[in-house]
Design goal:
Elements lengths: L3 H9 L1 H7 L5 H39 L3 H10 L3 H36 L6 H11 L1 H6 L6 H19 L4 H36 L2
């Protein structure tokens, strides 16, 4: 069963709740995480399928209003309504599976930088912190657009959680979260530059 008091604690008083959760078993933290993930998956599946279906129908109407050829294309596309719905369902399931397994890899990623900035406890504490910090995302992350708030809230809880579980200062914990995010952003920018210059070179060959 989901510990509602713990959910409220991580949302309303995270510092005290992380402090009280230091002695929790990894299995207990994983059960808590999995239950929230299942709840998110069910709600997200409903929302994504409905929104995907409505967006698909709207696109068909718009295409159908583009004249004779548009109506022909819209009629052909209407046969793919079931595909759009099942693809949305598969996407949610893929996220569920990746999140179920991937939380350990994400925790390892955070732990590497936590060690760099002064972490003093074992990897297990970072895993539990990562699982517990996911609480706000799973609570509101299934809501379109609001999900961004859930993700940012998750990062804030990661900072608070690392500070408590790894006996780091708040500044050290913040650096352990912010620095890797900046490095990832730099990597994405550089990779985008690589793709852009590659495409420019290819276009230059044919012009």
């Amino acid at each position: 069963m989901l510990d509602i008091n713990k959910v409220k604690g991580f949302l309303m008083s995270p510092t005290e709740t992380f402090r009280a959760s230091k002695g929790d078993s990894l299995a207990g933290a994983f059960r808590y995480y999995t239950i929230l993930l299942v709840i998110w998956t069910i709600l997200a599946a409903i929302v994504w399928m409905v929104m995907g279906y409505l967006a698909f129908q709207d696109a068909i109407i718009r295409i159908g209003n583009m004249g004779f050829f548009g109506s022909q294309i819209a009629e052909a596309l209407s046969n793919f309504g079931a595909f759009v719905t099942t693809f949305q369902l598969f996407t949610v399931y893929a996220f569920f599976f990746l999140s179920l397994v991937g939380v350990f890899f994400i925790a390892f990623f955070w732990h590497v930088f936590a060690l760099l900035f002064g972490a003093k406890r074992e990897f297990k504490q970072t895993i539990k912190t990562t699982m517990y910090a996911s609480t706000p995302f799973f609570i509101i992350g299934w809501i379109p657009y609001i999900a961004v708030i859930g993700w940012l809230w998750y990062l804030v809880l990661m900072i608070i959680g690392l500070s408590e579980s790894q006996e780091m200062t708040m500044g050290e914990a913040a650096m352990a979260i912010v620095v890797p995010i900046i490095l990832v952003i730099i990597g994405v920018v550089i990779w985008s530059g690589v793709i852009a210059t590659l495409m420019t070179g290819i276009l230059g060959v044919f012009t």
